Amino acid sequence: MISSMLSTMSTTSTLSLTSSAITLFAQTGVSEISIVSVISLIALLSCSEILSASKLWNRRLSTMLNLAIMPMVVVFFAIVAFKVMAVLQ
Is the dihedral of CA 53, 59, 60, 63 positive or negative? Predict the structure, then answer.
């Protein structure tokens, strides 16, 4: 009984978060999201380059920044593909 209730609550919260994300995406549009993601990627790459030359650089910091940079690179390529497909249509 309790596990089914927790499962229902979990599903409801997941659906709620998903619909919120979709609504946010639809309201702001692709261009605003792409601008924010490209600026974030530039900031992360800049931090990585600056910190790699300092005394603070270590393997842990490198891993942390790479974990943040890799998804942003994927998003960047998705944005480029989306823009290219929009131009070709």
Answer: positive
For 36-82, what is each residue's pLDDT tens digit?
A: 888 999 999 999 999 889 888 899 988 999 999 999 999 899 888 88
Q: What is the DSSP letter of 56?
A: T
Q: Which domain holds residue 50?
A: 2-88
Phi/psi region, residue 57 (left: phi>0; alpha: psi -120 to 50; beta: rest), is beta
Number of domains in the chain: 1
The residue type at 23 = T
Among 23, 30, 24, CA closest to 79: 30
Q: Which amino acid is at 51?
A: L
In the 8-state DSSP scheme, what is residue 54?
A: S
Spatial separation of the C-alpha atoms in residues 89 and 83, rounded to whole Å: 10
